[in-house]
Amino acid sequence: MVSGGQRVVVIGAGAGGLSAAITLAAKGREVTLVERATAPGGKLRSVPAGARALDGGPTVFTMKWVFDELFALAGTSLEARLKLRQADTLARHSWTGGARLDLFADHAKSRDAIGRFAGAAEAQAFDAFSRDAKQMYEALKDSFIAAQRPNPVQLTRRAGVGKMLSIKPFSTLWDALGSYFQDQRLRQLFGRYATYCGSSPFESPATLMLVAHVEMDGVWLLDEGMHSLAVAMSDLAGELGATLRYGHRVEEILSEGDRVSGVRLNTGEVIPAGAVVFNGDVAALARGDLGVSAQKAVPRQKSERRSLSAVVWTMLARTRGFPLVHHTVFFSDAYEAEFQDILKRGRLPEQPTIYVCAQDRGDAAAVSQGAIGEGEERIYFLVNAPACGDARGFDEKEITSCYERSLALMRRSGLEIEARSETVVATAPDDFEKLYPATGGALYGRASHGWKASFERAGARTRLPGLYLAGGSVHPGPGVPMATLSGRLAVERLMADSTSRRRWFPGAIFGGTSTASATMAVTD
User: Fold this and answer.
1) Which of 413, 312, 402, 408 is nearest to 350 (CA)?
2) Which of 28, 253, 335, 414 has its CA 20 to 30 A from that of 36?
3) Model pLDDT, residue 159
4) How far apart are CA 109 and CA 88, in angstroms?
């Protein structure tokens, strides 16, 4: 076999893979990106809506600094590539019976809105909550989020004992919220941020309060939708010299002499490589989907630790009776029962919380001029679901019943949705399993349940020298910004290893411990 030399193969054109390809190419490495789909994006996918398309995956753009740094590394800027604007209204929140609350980028506006909604004491509680959420984020941004995965001892050394205690790692998010808010609706609202990580607020650590700060720090709207970010990243990688192979599937990660040597495509073609960055769910490697060598490189993934899945409906629709903004949430009347249904009973929730993205709207409750016409607009709505798509299918009756329950809940808040049936597309956990193999439809890797969960997530390095990991199932976690960071961290680890005198690092252990030498700063 011809040596791959300095070539790096990146498998998967999700945010992590695209980030890795851009970073490698910007640093002068030879890069070949292989993606089985015919277009970039991964979970940042686009789905048809009549004659147009709309986002079918992540819809919230935060942590803009991650992309500013990545595009600057490549000698350009986000603004030079995409049309985006900062949202004034972060999201609109609704409860049955007509109660409604908007949160804003401006803290004072949110505080005043909460005061009118729930009283002066709760407005003061919001001040304390926001202060502590910011403190958590600042404690973890450089020590954990943007850094190689540490173990608990290393994180304490990086952040300091005082800051580690301030992030309340041993309290659940739900319990912590109860120490701030007496109004259960506010507890429900801020508990929703656990679902950004595919987790339950009743089982997640209070540390996830930091997600609230991330959103309050800035939500951005992309004029062409979130999929346009993936397209811009792919274009940038190509301009920097990366070879982009869309419509090709990697069947096996090859090794020679206990080290990565390349990949084999479904066509039989072999691409030699000195290193491989895998931007897919770790569960696919652990199941053996990419060969025995890669399977041995990662630990077995337990299905009971999976994050949430979802049922997503996309459509062209006419709406009336409720002033949707770009991001709107309709809350369940039985919030804890919703998670019991999903996580304990393995079924679609009887009373779901519903997230709606009205892609043709901005901050205001008005459809933009670029909408469909004749009163139609592009609507995406999501309910959480169990990640059991590899164990069973969800039949039409189940999906239709959940759809009707969702429409009924939104009607109780005043929203009527009339969709053109031929444009309605439902994507259920078994569909997501086909899109993202070995996940059962889990959209966020493993759930963030318990204080150890973040340390048990895989890091950039694997047990197979030359194989590195990126994506939402690895450190620093799920979400488009975090996956993008994971790609950069994989390259950072790859470059450090390639310049080290040691060819490989047998001390890299999953689970947050390491037998590495004293000269190593991180565990993976």
Assistant:
1) 402
2) 28
3) 62
4) 10
